[in-house]
Amino acid sequence: MGTLFGSGIKRREDPRLITGHATYTDDVKLPGLTYAAILRSTYAHARLKKVNVARAKKAPGVVAVYTGADVKERVNPVPCAWNVPNCDLKTPPHPLLAHEKVRYAGDGIAMVVAESREEARDALDLIDVEYEPLPAVVDPEMAAQPKAPQLHAEVPSNVAFTWNVAGGDADKAFAEAAVKVDLRIVQQRLQPTAMEPRAAVASFNPGAGQLTLWVTSQNPHIHRFLCSVMLKVPEHRIRVIAPEVGGGFGSKIPAYADEALVCFAAMDLKRPVKWTEDRSENYKATIHGRDHVEYVELCGTKDGAITGLRAKVYAGLGGYASTAAPGIPTILHGLMYSGPYTIPNVKGTVYGVYTTTTPVDAYRGAGRPEATYLLERLVNLYARKIGMDPVELRRKNLIAKDKFPYTVATGITYDSGDYQAALDKALSILDYQAFRAEQAKARKQGRYLGVGVTTYCEICGLGPSQVAGAVGFGGGLYDSAIVRVYPTGVVRAYIGGKPHGQGEETTFAQIVADEFGIPIENVEIVAGDTEATPQGWGTYGSRTTAVCGSAVKIAAQRVKEKAKKLAAHLLEANEADLEWRDGKFVVRGSPDQAKSFADLALMANVAWNMPAGTEPGLEATAFFDPSNFVFPFGAHICTVEVVVETGQVKILRYIAVDDCGPQINPMIVEGQVHGGVVQGVGEALQEIAVYDEDGQLLTGTMMDYAVPKASQMPKIETAHTVTPTPVNPLGVKGIGETGTIASPPTVVNAVLDALAPLGVVHLDKPLTPARVWAAIQNGKKGGAR
Amino acid sequence: MIPAAFEYTRARSVADALKALGARNTKVLCGGQSLIPLLRFRLAEPKRLVGIGHLSQLKGITRTKGGVRIGAATTYRELLESKVLQSDFPLIGEVTAHIGDLQVRNVGTIGGGLAHADPAADMPAVMLALDAKFQLQSAKGKRTVAAREFFRGPFSTAMKPTELLTEIQLPALPANAGTAYADFEQLASGYALVGAAAVVARSQGSVTQATLAFTGLSDTPFLAKSAGELIGTKGDAQAITRVAEGAVEGVEANDDIHASSAYRLHLAKVAARRALTEAVERAK
Amino acid sequence: MKQSITLTVNGTDRAVNVESRALLAYVLRDQLDLTGTHVGCDTSQCGACTVLLDGHAVKSCTLLAVQVEGRAITTIEGLSADGLHPVQQAFWEKHGLQCGFCTPGMILTAVDLLSQNPDPSEAEIRHGLEGNYCRCTGYQNIVAAIGAAAAALRSGKRAGAAA
Q: What CA–CA distance (Å, rounded) separates A731 from A717?
């Protein structure tokens, strides 16, 4: 390895971001630009009797108004792209604009295109919609009942799929078990809240038949593909550019009707069109996350050996199946029920259920936080039932480090791990025994302290394309890079991934600069333009460094091999006699006989003297398809004090020990952990999307949806262990989602530990002061579950 | 989010603003920190706005006979920076420090906030506790309305559409008075789930005067009647608890996704107790 | 409906023709091409639109352009005419940003915060960011960056005073 790998150098993307010179989608301006605004349903569920746009069409500045009826023959519906097999999946069409029914408050009904933002907005007020209201159903468990209001005629009981997972014989294990615990858990719906709302700008060149779309996307190649489907335009005629993207957290993976409509209008009007969400529109029209109602059980022996887990999950999908929605509560959730433990018998059933709410899709962690949460809650309950320390119980059941690769009951194989080491490290940072003593002392003084310890592992680095195909994912999951050496010796890597805050413009440059022994200033990473970059599958699922980074490494190695060939030729030496030293190929034993990287860059590009049979140029493309997923792991600990009088929770310490393998840039890794943990703490303590029974979103603005603020969040202590994965040449695992996966149960278990003497056994997230206080009152009455 | 169109007039003087207010469907824009979000959501669609935030006649904090006069267009930041308030009415600064946020305090004004009359805003409770008087002016003249008569309901006040809130008058605090504010914030908006403001005066250890006001608890900020029961006591924990308990008796508390009415009532007692305890402590 | 007003933006007088209802944020972005000012919410919460008005941080999505006629506005593009401002530098050094969308508003708020309180505690910094949301960093490195910038500004002042 070179000298940059492992170094926490400053990020190369920052200068433009801190000076206001970055270009986000809404910053894109084009001559003749028009502005779109979308009229959205105010009802959660209704038949559309009439949509009258006559007045809007005559309004000042209005260029066009489109309704569902206008566009339905000319476009295809929004596709669902993760067709999970063997679960009787039903994905009824999701029209770009509703024309018969609306199925959530926020469903698009009409789009206005006007000369200015203001005129487009004004015209929305002139559209008359006549609704025939239908009953709403917002809870996934309620929606799956036989008498629930029906969203789609072709989906009885609103059940989009019934997915089963089983390994071992869970029913037998439960029948024979000495100890059983069970819980009903509500994993609340969340609003992802990327700080940049979604936006799209489309421009059509009729002469070339070429459409260009600037869009807030984590995966421009997937957007190109899905827009092609919706617009009936061949993929090669669409160029998708994801410029600077202001956070995603999963919400910018899916294809949305909105960007397809913008493209449609640009082609129809032959004028560029821009659309940008408001935050309140974002909260209704951009996907939500989580939304599970779960019935879960764990069984084991009296001395703490877990023998089985069963789960029945109602996963809300919202009004339609969003792009990856069916895969989230199944493949990315149910397959991970064992977590880091040896659980021989597992059985799960997941119902994907349509409800009259905003569609639900991948939100940071996507399925894995839910799996980790239910498991870690059950483990604590089990420990409490048998009177064992929850840490000891975990330790007893962790997969031992000499067992890897380890195949769990659900059939997937974990790559590598040393779970005990991470746990030990976290415990020693806290001094667990000392905290327990402090807790006991505090209780005598009437103060309630608690500690939560989570051991977790997760599946990411998605993933082998063959597996993607087998599980119905509508694409590959390899990734790609072109490494191109310019005549001056500057190197650019064009990558298939699309970083949007994760810092790969820096970490990938570290990989390339190391490979060639050149200053990092001579390396640039290019991402986000489908015309410039090779086919990739996007930045999500903590996959970019593991998969795309590996492609970068391999492409760079190929370039170096070619450079070596050229160097040997120019030096009239054998390749075998050359060694790479300080950015030069040197003839072993003759240090003055050398060719620098810059020399070779120039000579390859001018091609005056190439070895026989070698093509000019110095570039290589690599497509890397991993042999397996990667499985980062770790141990998180949180200590809290609960103010019993008010229900307020104060986090005393938060310790995160994560293992993502070798770290290219520890500063960036730490930043990912901070952000992920805080997002999970938000989930644990304050974030929740609330609908009323009519399907109106009551948390429709930032006045009511509690995005974590600086003053509400703890300082996080980070540490690491390093266990490389054998499945990629960098040995790296993912770190983008671990914080969000590990922290919700850590915080909740800490609070419930504090509340244990008050008779509180379980409490659903978020643990707002109001909820904690109510639970304490209930516990006092002996009413706790 | 784009407001519906309106005409904007930048008032040249208070008189000019009052004249403009005579026209139908006209609203005053001071700092705009409460009104502009409403305009953006088109929850308010006035035909005309009269800008007054820049008028120096409406700004400033000055000592009057025994009390202090605050111009309605004085920003929260100016309140925080005022030496006069720090010395004469420290309660104002304590509360102001957590109204809105740094940026909002730079523009938002005390008069604008009070006229907006958000039932969960902090300042109305303080005005009640301090027994502030509001000067209202229209083209026809001036009148003074006590804060205790001003707040009529959520976003509703004793002001007529043609009137302007021009100044806030704070009468001098009694000798040996202590003031305090305690609140619990709604996690998202930062507004008060419940806030309690207390003013207590003591003489030779005994409470001679006590005032307690709430915000956020119900649809209008209000003065707790039970506070008087503290008078004559030593301001001890028992007496305070009794007052705090009595203060919320019979109150119909708000109930929403952020807090049940039971929780709000409970927090109100806690806030009242904390504010009174602190005020008693400071009343020396 | 439109009227012409003059704003002093980043030190230069700019005449713009605006509707009464035009929000300062959109005038900066759409008419003056200063797209470093971002719009992240519609309830005056997130602070991505923060600019300096006569040196004080304000939310430009909650101000009418006509309201600030004649006043001086500093956007992120104009914060430092020469190299990086110490706050910008500290955000870079301390990894105080990830996606960068909230960053201009964070930086400008921090500039005002430090002008009011040159030596803030961690709690004071966190409280000072009440009106600025970040979804990426968990705030920790932002808080560290502002602390580092405060130290840099203080030592810069001392150096200036000594010279």
A: 25
